[in-house]
Amino acid sequence: MALKEKISEDIKTAMKSGDKLRLETLRTLRAVLMEKEIDLRGSGKPMTPDDETSTLVSAAKKRKESIEQFQAGGRMDLVAQETSELAIIQEYLPKQMGEDEIKQVIEAVVKETGASAAADFSKVMPLVMKQLKGKADGKVIQELVKKRLAS
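Above: the chain's sequence. Below: its structure in token form.
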């Protein structure tokens, strides 16, 4: 079952159960996915699972940024809402990798490229991101790559 259909089914379930937050979050996700699909239609490309994942990663990233801003502004009510929405979005994302798994991928890329210094960051980072797209937070990956190249 494609992601869009799964979300549509989950919308029906949320309607029946009366879970308003889940319902609104899923409707927003469906709208974002449909918007992406329409954008791709203009270029003649079909929607791929990678496109779906990147769209959901973008939605999750927006929630994380909102949480940080609301915390800085002292709006704990909105922090709670954004945190709940983020949890719902993460249900549809691939399982996030742990720090050890990320380090293994970074190590393999460093060996492959022969990187040895912080100046090689621009060689390593794109390759690591390509392998871990949607599976780990970009900020965490960036920190680990910098730490690895600094040592």
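Residues 17 and 23 are 10 Å apart (CA to CA).
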